[in-house]
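Record format v2
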Amino acid sequence: MFNNPFIKQLFGSFLDLAPILAVVLVFQVLVIRQPIPDVGNLIAGTLFVVFGLTLFIQGLEQSLFPIGESMAYALARKGSLFWLLAFAFCLGFGAAVAEPALIAVAEKAANIASNGNLIEQTDAAKAGYALGLRITVALSIGLAILVGVLRIIRGWPVYYPVFFGYVCIAIMTSFAPVEIIGIAYDSGGIATSSITVPLVTALGVGLATSIKGRNPMTDGFGLIVLASLMPTIFVMVYGMAI
Amino acid sequence: MIDWLMHFVLKLLVTCRDILPIVVIIIGFQLLVIRKPLAHPRKTIIGFFYVLLGIVFFLEGLDLALFPLGSLMAKQLTTLEFLGVNSLDEVSSWQAYSWVYIFAASIGFATALAEPSLLAVALKAEQISGGTIRAWGLRISVAIGVGFGLALGTFRIVTGSEFYLYIIGGYIIVMIQTRFAPKLIIGLAYDSGGVTTSMVTVPLVTALGLGLASAVPGRNPLLDGFGLIAFASLFPIIAVLGYAQIAQWLNRRSLSSKP
């Protein structure tokens, strides 16, 4: 029974949550010493998260990941620069749009923005703001992966685009409205969680392995960092635009 | 029951829209550019269906558990009774909130240490560096980086100081470290920041930041609530670069001390 992949994954998802639950529990029992309200909902929610995470990862592992990986290898071997870059952009965009953590946090950000009277207090305005935020992040992740793949092909050092990104962020910060800065800096880290990281790492390492003269260690890594810098710049532009 | 079912179906439809782009991209490229049929069409379709259901349950669970948990902890750790103060003057001093920093640091440290994708990356790094960089050392330094980053981030929310000054200061440190760090590790160190912000950490940390910004007097969730994730993804970079430098230095010293 323990060899069943579903059960294994269920256990794995629980392990993902365990450190958070352990820290919270220790604090509740030893430091705060107050009853937790709504324990029923918390337990039900935790079970939902574990179950949802299990289905999600299980599904990714039997659909998206194998196809994405084999496709990255196939395209790298094919050697057509145009298709490779097009694939890189689309992969980054699609993965970021589907990212569950980004969906949840964009909704939160829209609520905060409407409570702060930044946008109208209607559901339509909130949904529009959240979707705009996600599309902005997704476009920038697509662009980041494209630049990262170009970097691997050309063999540029990993820190060139990163330093350039840092400088761009520093300059943009002085022009962007203050309300957007926090979520802009966060958006990169939020978007690089469950779908983007494995797919993009596979793409980078696959490319660096199949191109002559590239080392998967020095050239294969460095895509994720671009994917977490680029959204910051773009979301600040989004904040200036609305 | 009917209400709940309607809500569920609606969520399912919205999620369909969310995963549509990646499905179209993957299948489109497979059929049009690679020009090969899918290897296991049935398995793939079932997989996509799992992903769909998984996202719906996950998001529902977030609303029920992780978001409330984050804001509950923020609220409970900042009540007047818990802080043990009774005047508003003391509430605005940052020393009163030490448990908040400790909580943030523990969450960051524990989640980073348990992160499965980090384990894989750390083993790969040990292999490629020829043992100079130890997998455990790498994991501990990432965990310290995340923990320190989150503690500093909550300190920033409590004091309400300018958020970008910390981050841009961090960028400058990374740039200086890059100059001196061993070349092999740079790409991996840069990526370690993104790897630790997993699907479960992001919602909890976001809720903690927002809850803190609305509980501490004088702070505004709109201006101060976000930013913790940025801290959690910048400081591991500094920690890993620092660890790689120390490991290289120790290695050199032990080599040169041997005749």
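Chain A has two domains: 1-62, 68-241.
The radius of gyration of chain A is 20 Å.
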